[in-house]
Amino acid sequence: MRVRLAVLVVLLITSAVAPAQNQNSSAVDAAVRAVLQDQVDAWNRHDLDRFMAGYWDSPDLTFFSGATETKGWQPTLDRYRQKYQSNGHAMGTLSFSDLNVEALGANAAFVRGRFHLLMPDGKQPTGAFTLIFRKFPQGWRIIHDHTCADEKSR
Q1: Residue 41: phi, psi to the nearest 5?
Q2: Are 108 and 132 in contact (CB under 8 A)?
Q3: Domain residue spans in the chain?
Q4: Is the per-residue pLDDT at 3 higher than 90?
C-alpha cells in the first residue's frame, strides 16, 4: 500500500512540474526570439545602436567571430561599425533561420541558429551562431556570441 501511495505521489508531482517547466520554456523561447527579431529589424534599418541593445552592456560580454575574440560591449559595437558601417562597407539585409532556443532555467538560454546577409553587391554571406542569453531586470540579453561564417562566405 505504501509503495502504491509513493508511486502515486511521485506521479502527481511529476505531472504538476512538467507543465510548469514547459510553460517556462515557452516563455523563455518567446522572449529570446523577440530579442532576436528586434535585432534583425534594427539591422535592416541600419541601426547598430538598437541592434546592440540585444547584447549585455558590459565589459564582460564575449563575442567570437571565428577564432577572433572581442571582449566588451563597446569594442563589439566598434567592431560592427568598422566591419559594416565604415567607408566601403555595407550592412546588407539580415535574416536568421534554423533557430533553436533551449531554456537553461528561468534566467538563461542557449541558442543555435544560422544567419544570412544579402549585401548590396549581391554577395550573400551565411554562417552559424551560438548564443548564451541571460535574463536581467531590463530584459533578456546576449552575454556570449560565437558566430562563424560558412567556408564559401569567407
Answers
A1: -60, -45
A2: yes
A3: 2-153
A4: no
Are 94 and 113 spatial neighbours (Cβ–Cβ below 8 Å)? no
Per-residue three-class SS string for the chain = CHHHHHHHHHHHHHHHHHHHHHHHHHHHHHHHHHHHHHHHHHHHCCCHHHHHCCECCCCCCEEEECCEEEECHHHHHHHHHHHHCCCCCCCCEEEEEEEEEEECCCCEEEEEEEEEEECCCCCCCEEEEEEEEEEECCEEEEEEEEEEECHHHC
Q: What is the pLDDT of residue 15?
A: 44
What's the N-to-C CA distance of the chain in angstroms? 67
Among the listed residues 116, 114, 139, 111, the one whose alpha carbon sits nearest the alpha carbon of residue 128: 114
Calculate mean pLDDT across residues 60-84. Answer: 96
Domain 2-153 classification at class level: alpha beta
Task: Please report the pLDDT score of residue 93 as a whole number.
Answer: 97
pLDDT for 128-151, tens place per residue?
999 999 999 999 999 999 999 998
Would the pTM of this model clear 0.85, i.e. be above it?
A: no
* C-beta of residue 127 within 8 angstroms of C-beta of residue 115: yes
